[in-house]
């Protein structure tokens, strides 16, 4: 069984389970190395299913006993589960199993983290807890009894009887097993309270390990804001008497939406001004919202099978983006989302791991919690909303909640509610779900006799397993500017449905300047021949904040590409334009900070590769350094002014306004540091009374090569705080010089605080190496070697995190023959490891091609 080659699962093979479950009762007798799980499950035949084979998933379980209707049975047990003869009438299955939470380093199922018991069941972890049909289309109400000495014993739903050494929980809402959760530990709570709009009181808690009490307030505020927002914007009320959040130190992902008991990576929930940056706060607010929003989009309406993962994830990411846009600045949120989409999803979509938003097959579902399913999935919701309008979207969502509450639904169900609510035919839209790859949108234009015409042509390059890419419907938001900078056509959404299509605008007095794909209305790559003068014009005049930012980004990118391809000097037009923008006090400081950002090394590598040039990582880094230096010189006067102007003097608040000011001031600090060798950064470091200021200064010092004293001081100050020490590990690697990065990462793996068992720490060290692109791709190949060494070490302990981190290699085909050979050798070395996990085997094989 063990060495059987991993099986591929196909969407087309879906069949319903042969039984339904009326009730589940579980008893846990906790013990670190020998926990007993006693289950009592009421099954009855599913009238909608043909196949009545009784198969229960189960992995790493020791079966103690099993019975049906009280009669002992001897099921047929394999590594993957059990089968058993069962009656063709309703029956009660009972089983007792033993599991070993302490030995569970994969952090899937029931495991221990710093002395507390916790669970992670999505996607297929419940089968490591007991025998069960571990699939999202089998829903049941759960009764849970926990027996243990820990002070706090939590599970899903509402509390029942509690006493010395035990607690009972009842979850009345039928749910699939992946939403099950249990937590037990000597925890403390930060309490809160919410009254729903229909007047139902809800008890709220953030549970943490003693010592972390002072890091809970922000999460609680964020939770209350989320609950209110979902009522106001989506009409969704909470549906239990209690909502618990627990912070766990060892966690593979960000967080998990278990019904009534959300479990969070402590990095995604714990925060206070001294230990957390503005960016941490914003991310925590978004993740709290995301998990809370899942209560409706995920829990009340779940997925029929894991191919439909984007049904809950795409929609919930979209909802949390809307929430952040409402809480903070919509423009800044949109720009940041697109930066992240391009960095992660476009990269994925243009490489060997490309897959549809709704994949058709997988080996290990954990490998499909990707930027494509999440972030591109959210973009598809945004396009739907653009196509049907705000009202159509609201009607469709109401119908979705009304019709599918309590269901395990599909993407077909989802699109059907839009079709019915709005009368639109969405057959062609479905291609966005089924076809992988990022469409290219070629744009040309002409003007004659007052008529301006935009010509579009779409094409999508082949992706693994999909060569033919028919045209998709693309909503293209367009505005037109007159020669004096005034808008002559307000934003209009053009619906492109064919491979080639033209749209004309009449009655114009002069040839306008087009602002195409406003708000990034579709996840495509626009290809348009234009000149820098036009970009500078858009940067100055475009009323659409996204395209205004985009014009500046294009200027910067094309200037860098010219430096790389033709040895050009930094572009003066860019230097002038960015300065003009930074000086414009009418613009939001956060927007100006984004406009100061430059394309990443990875963006430039992809752009060169797309243009037929083999990227040289060292040259890319040097071009960026040259441009940053030129900017620092050009802004020698401006930078100190901005720095002074945007110092925040009020008490620290992690709100949008203060964060924007700090971001811009710290951007200015980066410019200053290039010329003053770190004096200002050291002063800021010494005076800092919050982590945003401290960390910004620390980064500047490291980049300037003046970080030694701060590195020691930072460690001495924060050695007691795991989350802060993660930052310490990561910043040293990310900011290491190209030739040092691999050595710094390797040296830090020898630090007494390094641990392979904590995914945050592992990522802070080895994930950071992959983030230092020039260091990772150092010509010696040592970056590749160090990462591969550690992935090989981590795989037997934690396959999920190992497999995810393999994507550091996904862009390998871009590079020169020498680098390709070195990476191929590392990939082959990983694949050759005996007993390599299914997760990592699938990832590395797909990358290797
Ligand atoms: N559903 C969680 C979320 O909110 C993520 C869980 C991912 N789990 C996994 N094993 N891949 O996005
Ligand atoms: Zn989610």
TrEMBL record:
Presence of the UniProt keyword Repeat in the record: no
Gene3D superfamilies: 2.60.40.1840, 3.30.2010.30, Neutral Protease Domain 2, Peptidase M1, alanyl aminopeptidase, C-terminal domain, tricorn interacting facor f3 domain
EC number: 3.4.11.2
Catalytic activity: Release of an N-terminal amino acid, Xaa-|-Yaa- from a peptide, amide or arylamide. Xaa is preferably Ala, but may be most amino acids including Pro (slow action). When a terminal hydrophobic residue is followed by a prolyl residue, the two may be released as an intact Xaa-Pro dipeptide
UniProt keyword annotations, A-Z: Aminopeptidase, Hydrolase, Metal-binding, Metalloprotease, Protease, Zinc
GO BP, sorted A to Z: proteolysis
Keyword Zinc carried by entry: yes
Peptidase M1 alanyl aminopeptidase Ig-like fold domain sequence ranges: 437-528
Pfam families: DUF3458, DUF3458_C, Peptidase_M1, Peptidase_M1_N
CC cofactor: Zn(2+)
GO MF term set: alanyl aminopeptidase activity; metallopeptidase activity; zinc ion binding
Highest taxon of source: Bacteria
Limits of the Aminopeptidase N-like N-terminal domain: 29-179
SUPFAM superfamilies, per database record: Leukotriene A4 hydrolase N-terminal domain, Metalloproteases ('zincins'), catalytic domain
InterPro entries: Aminopeptidase_N-like_N (IPR045357), Aminopeptidase_N-like_N_sf (IPR042097), PepN_Ig-like_sf (IPR038438), Peptidase_M1 (IPR001930), Peptidase_M1_dom (IPR014782), Peptidase_M1_pepN (IPR012779), Peptidase_M1_pepN_C (IPR024601), Peptidase_M1_pepN_C_sf (IPR037144)
Domain Peptidase M1 alanyl aminopeptidase C-terminal: 533-847
Domain Peptidase M1 membrane alanine aminopeptidase, chain residue ranges per copy: 218-432
Family, similarity comment: Belongs to the peptidase M1 family.
Name of the molecule in the record: Aminopeptidase N
Organism whose genome encodes this protein: Roseovarius indicus
């Amino acid at each position: 069984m063990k060495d059987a080659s991993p099986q591929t699962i196909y969407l087309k093979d879906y069949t319903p389970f042969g039984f339904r479950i009326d009730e589940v009762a579980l008893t846990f007798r906790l013990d670190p190395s020998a926990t007993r799980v006693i289950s009592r499950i009421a099954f009855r035949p599913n009238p909608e299913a043909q196949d009545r084979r009784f198969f229960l998933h189960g992995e790493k379980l020791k079966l103690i006993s099993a019975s049906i209707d009280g009669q002992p049975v001897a099921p047929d047990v394999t590594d993957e589960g059990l089968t058993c003869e069962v009656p063709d009438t309703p029956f009660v299955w009972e089983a007792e199993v033993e599991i070993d939470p302490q030995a569970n380093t994969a952090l899937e199922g029931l495991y221990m983290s710093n002395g507390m018991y916790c669970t992670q069941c999505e996607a297929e972890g419940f089968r490591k807890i007991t025998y069960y049909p571990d699939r999202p289309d089998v829903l049941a109400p759960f009764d849970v009894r926990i027996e243990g000495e820990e002070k706090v014993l939590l599970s899903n739903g509402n509390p029942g009887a509690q006493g010395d050494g035990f607690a009972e929980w009842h979850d009345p809402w039928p749910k699939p097993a992946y939403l099950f959760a249990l937590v037990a530990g000597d925890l403390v709570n930060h309490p809160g309270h919410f009254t729903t709009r229909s007047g139902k009181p809800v008890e709220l808690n953030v549970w943490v390990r003693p010592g972390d009490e002072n890091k809970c307030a922000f999460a609680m505020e964020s939770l209350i804001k989320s609950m209110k927002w979902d009522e106001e914007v989506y009409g969704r009320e909470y549906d239990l008497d209690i909502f618990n959040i627990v912070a766990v130190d060892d966690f593979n992902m960000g967080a998990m939406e278990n019904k009534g008991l959300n479990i969070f990576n402590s990095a995604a929930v714990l925060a206070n001004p001294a230990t957390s940056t503005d960016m941490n706060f914003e991310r925590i607010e978004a993740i709290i919202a995301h998990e809370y929003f899942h209560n409706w989009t995920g829990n009340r309406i779940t997925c029929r099978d894991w191919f439909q993962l984007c049904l809950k994830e795409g929609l919930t990411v979209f909802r949390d983006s809307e929430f952040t846009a409402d809480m903070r600045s919509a423009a800044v949120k949109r720009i940041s989302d697109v930066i992240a989409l391009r960095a992660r999803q476009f990269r994925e979509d243009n490489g060997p791991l490309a897959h549809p938003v709704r994949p058709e097959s997988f080996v290990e579902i954990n490998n499909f919690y990707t930027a494509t399913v999440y972030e591109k999935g959210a973009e598809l919701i945004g396009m739907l909303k653009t196509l049907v309008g705000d009202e159509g979207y609201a009607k469709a969502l109401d119908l979705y909640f009304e019709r599918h509450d309590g269901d395990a639904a599909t993407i077909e169900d989802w699109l059907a509610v839009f079709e019915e609510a709005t009368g639109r035919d969405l057959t062609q839209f479905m291609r966005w779900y089924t076809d992988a790859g990022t469409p290219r949108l070629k744009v040309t234009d002409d003007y004659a006799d007052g008529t301006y015409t935009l010509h579009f042509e779409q094409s999508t390059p082949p992706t693994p397993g999909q060569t033919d890419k028919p045209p998709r419907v693309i909503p293209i938001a367009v505005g037109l500017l007159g020669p004096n900078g005034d808008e002559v056509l307000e934003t209009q959404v053009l619906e492109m449905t064919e491979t080639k299509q033209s749209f004309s605008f009449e009655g114009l007095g002069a040839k306008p300047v087009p602002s195409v794909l406003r708000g990034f209305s579709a996840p495509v790559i626009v290809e348009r021949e234009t000149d820098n003068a036009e970009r500078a014009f858009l940067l100055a005049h475009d009323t659409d904040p996204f395209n205004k930012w985009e014009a500046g980004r294009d200027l910067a990118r094309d200037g860098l590409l010219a430096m790389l391809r033709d040895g050009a000097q930094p572009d003066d037009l860019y230097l002038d334009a960015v300065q003009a923008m930074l000086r414009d006090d009418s613009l939001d400081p956060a927007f100006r900070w984004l406009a100061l950002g430059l394309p990443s090394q990875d963006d430039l590598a992809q752009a060169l590769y797309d243009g037929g040039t083999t990227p040289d990582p060292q040259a890319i880094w040097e071009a960026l350094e040259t441009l940053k230096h030129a900017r620092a010189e050009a802004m020698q006067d401006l930078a100190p002014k901005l720095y002074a102007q945007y110092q925040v003097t009020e008490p620290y608040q992690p709100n949008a306004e203060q964060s924007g000011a700090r971001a811009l001031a710290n951007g200015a600090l980066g410019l200053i540091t290039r010329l003053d060798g770190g004096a200002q950064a050291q002063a800021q470091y010494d005076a800092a009374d919050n982590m945003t200021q401290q960390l910004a200064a620390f980064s500047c010092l490291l980049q300037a090569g003046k970080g030694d004293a701060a590195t020691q001081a930072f460690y001495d100050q924060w050695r007691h705080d795991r989350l802060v020490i993660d930052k310490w590990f990561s910043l040293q690697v990310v900011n290491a010089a190209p030739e040092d990065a691999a050595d710094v990462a390797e040296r830090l793996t020898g630090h007494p605080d390094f641990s392979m068992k904590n995914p945050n720490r592992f990522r802070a060290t080895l994930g950071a190496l992959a983030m230092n692109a020039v260091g990772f791709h150092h010509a010696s190949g040592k970056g590749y070697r160090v990462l591969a060494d550690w992935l090989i070490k981590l795989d037997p302990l934690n396959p999920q995190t190992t497999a995810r981190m393999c994507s550091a290699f996904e862009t390998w085909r871009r590079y020169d023959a020498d680098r390709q050979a070195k990476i191929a050798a590392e990939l082959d070395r990983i694949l050759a490891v005996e007993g390599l996990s299914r997760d990592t085997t699938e990832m590395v094989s797909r990358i290797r091609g």
